[in-house]
């Protein structure tokens, strides 16, 4: 689980503009926080600097490069490049906008035979922002219709959300048992010290066997110690339904070393005796 951006400041010379990055980088000097280069070469440098990890492949997850179709094509080109680490793409498929929007987006990526690129694995649109969307936004009819269309295309969906959305996400997952669904970041973006509320909500999501949980983005939990959260996710989903995610470049932009999340997960596994 990585994010990449190419010449995003202006979007020129083959790059893609990224308004989210521009907002996050506003007022920061070049080289500080989000105001950095986030190419695959920079990712490889971060891995090498960790001194502990070796990455043989990664999934590119949408991150606001515009337009979304161009972002998907750019990432899919990396999948087809034998020199790239990118092995699959989770694109910004407009599921919240309904079935017609999903089908129109995917149509632009299909070949002449109507086949989707094999490197396209799924879609994601984050349920975050300021202000946050309603906690039950995923139950809107347009979203449910869009999700059905995504599933009909044989693609998975990733949820990236505030913990308040988890009970509603559990309901959605139950409605679509045949669609593989991935819960990013333990469903704990900006949740704060809310373990007693978050934990049972996560358990409700985990009751749906079509859901897999990504362990990562600990830099966004807003907690003093993320290890108990990771430990609970591992116990709740089981080892075979958990994935490691680096969340690069967000982790680096927020000041975490690339290896930090891995070390937290390692600590959680040790506490479980794994």
Can you tell me about this structure?
This protein is 36% helix and 11% strand. The chain has ten helices and seven strands. Strands 1-2-3-4-5-6-7 form a seven-stranded parallel beta sheet. It is globular, with a radius of gyration of 18 Å.
Structure summary, number of beta strands: 7
- How do the strands line up in the largest sheet? 1-2-3-4-5-6-7
- SS content category: alpha/beta
Strand content: 5-15%
The profile of the biggest β sheet is: 7 strands, parallel
How do the SSEs run, as a string of H and E? HHEHEHEHEHEHEHEHH
Name the shape in a single word.
globular
How many DSSP H or I helices?
10
Rg for CA atoms: 18 Å
The end-to-end distance, rounded to whole angstroms, is: 23 Å
Mean pLDDT: 96
Helix content: 25-40%
Low-confidence stretches: none
Brief summary of the model shown:
This protein is of the alpha/beta class. It is 36% helix and 11% strand.
List keywords for this structure.
274 residues; alpha/beta; seven-stranded parallel sheet; globular
Explain the layout of strands and helices:
Blueprint: H1 19-25, H2 40-50, E1 58-61, H3 68-79, E2 86-91, H4 99-107, E3 120-124, H5 141-152, E4 156-159, H6 166-175, E5 181-183, H7 195-206, E6 211-215, H8 227-237, E7 242-244, H9 250-253, H10 260-271
Parallel strand pairs: 1-2, 2-3, 3-4, 4-5, 5-6, 6-7
Helix pairs in contact: 4-5, 6-7, 7-8, 8-10
